[in-house]
Write a structure and sequence with these properties.
This protein is mainly beta. It contains no helices and ten strands. It has a single domain, classed as Jelly Rolls (Sandwich). Strands 1, 4, 5, 6, 7, 8, 9 and 10 form an eight-stranded antiparallel beta sheet that branches. It comes from Viridibacillus arenosi FSL R5-213. InterPro entries: RmlC-like_jellyroll, RmlC_Cupin_sf.
């Protein structure tokens, strides 16, 4: 399990085409990729299971907790991204609610695009 951040301070200012915004890159793939939006309500949980393919959880709003095969939970919140390798056991839960984008593909390498969270 690896933790990344995609917050505004890790992005790059874009000015091309008279633009004025900050882009925080997340991932790029050439292979088939599934992208979904996951909504965990209060006390929601994605049960403990193995990742079928590498998986990236990109927290958009709210906060929650994640773990891998250890029993220790780590807090995540908006601006955090969590990466699990294929076959890695993991779980996500939230007491207050959490919305996240989930990206699954045989070809994910988030370290090329996002800094590790310290």
């Amino acid at each position: 399990m690896e933790f990344y951040k995609f917050s505004k301070d890790s992005g790059k200012r874009i000015s091309k085409f008279d633009s004025n915004f900050i882009m925080s890159r997340i991932i790029q793939t050439d292979k088939a990729t599934n992208i979904g939006c996951m909504h965990l309500d209060q006390n929601g949980i994605v049960g403990f299971h193995q990742a079928v393919v590498p998986q990236l959880l990109v927290v958009i709003t709210g906060e929650g907790y994640v773990r891998n095969d250890s029993e220790e939970y780590f807090k995540v919140q908006s601006g955090d991204a969590v990466f699990w390798e294929k076959d890695e056991w993991h779980e996500t839960k939230s007491d207050k609610g959490l919305t996240a984008i989930v990206i699954e593909s045989v070809e994910l390498n988030p370290s090329l695009f996002m800094p590790l969270k310290k």
